[in-house]
Amino acid sequence: DTEHIALATDMYVTGMAVVETGWDPDADNGQGNVRVERCPAEHLYWDPMAKKLQQSRAVFRAIFHTRKWYREHYPGEYRYIQGDEFIDPDAPRGVNADGQDSVMMLEYWRREYDGRRHRVHVAYIAGRALLYDSRESMPEGVYAHGEYPFCCCTYRDAPRTIAGRGVIDDFIEMQRYANRNAHYIDINTRMA
User: Fold this and answer.
1) How many other CB atoms are found less than 10 A from the CB of residue 84?
2) What is the mean pLDDT of the chain?
3) What is the CA 148 to chain-centroid distance, rounded?
């Protein structure tokens, strides 16, 4: 499965693999089922003071969608969506496969504590317009457990950050020796 390959690549190369879990009402012929989706770590922004993702005060996720997608999913708010200067890094020249401009959507996940328990809320913002805020429709929070829907796996833990270290970090010393050797060869070649 390409999702699993991408997750393994994320973990070993970048040091961190992230999945987002949620409910997909359209799965299983409309009966609904759990959705587990890869979230590239470079699209996720967390509290830099947190040691673990679930301790973050807020988590942002950046996703790019076409204007057609916004028109279908948020017909009432679509007219408020403006163009933005953010370019989808996965699309050629900021245009998606169907030729439409892409607009970045920020998922703004925030965690609140009321003295008894944590509540997690989400707001969707795209093109300078608020598309959805869960505080209105779900005042008790999106999830009863009060945690973010993201799960992180790291190859190796890194000090003072949620992001881990990848396999590349295992070869830093070896690369330094190779660089030093190449430098000596370069010096000797110039002296000859």
Assistant:
1) 14
2) 86
3) 12
Phi, psi of 139 (to 5 degrees): -65, -20
The pLDDT tens digits for 33-56 are 998 889 988 889 999 888 888 889
Residues 84 and 103 sit within 8 Å (Cβ to Cβ) = yes
Cβ contact 121:112 at 8 Å: yes
Local confidence band at 88 (pLDDT 50, 70, 90 cut-offs):
low
Q: What backbone phi and psi angles, to 5 degrees, belong to 51?
A: -90, -25
Do 36 and 21 meet the contact criterion of CB atoms below 8 Å apart?
yes
Note the pLDDT of residue 1. 73
CA distance readout (Å), 168 to 71, 82, 153, 156: 42, 40, 16, 11
Query: Alpha-carbon distance 42 to 50, whole Å?
Result: 17
DSSP string, 66-121: EHHHHHHH-TTTGGGPPP-S---TTSGGGB-TTSPBEEEEEEEEEEEE-SS-EEEE
- Quick: pLDDT tens for 157-180: 888 888 888 888 888 888 899 999
